[in-house]
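User: What would this chain look like folded?
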Amino acid sequence: QVQLVESGGGLVQAGGSLRLSCATSERTFSSYSLAWFRQAPGKEREFVADITRGTNITRYADSAKGRFTISRDNAKNTVYLQMNSLKPEDTAVYYCAADRTLTSYNYWGQGTQVTVSS
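Assistant: Here's the prediction, encoded as structure tokens.
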């Protein structure tokens, strides 16, 4: 069982920045596609960004484009989400995910809370 541990969440004012990290001890980390999702209160979980294995091609939700950057460090078995110009509507629990399937991901972290105050 792959364990993913997120960190870096917190309370920030609108316009501020946070960097989320998601780490694992899994040795095959570099073989996984990785992603970040988020879930706001009363809403469904939604895609934020992902990054492929090998080629490191990235994709972003429209809400994240130009403000968020996903990256990975295979040597540290860690995926990051740099979030800039944060808005109150970015408030959510952020989850990292690994090993994409046809419909979802096989492994999920426990989530980290991001709260953006206006």
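The chain has a mean pLDDT of 96. If you want, I can go into more detail on any region.
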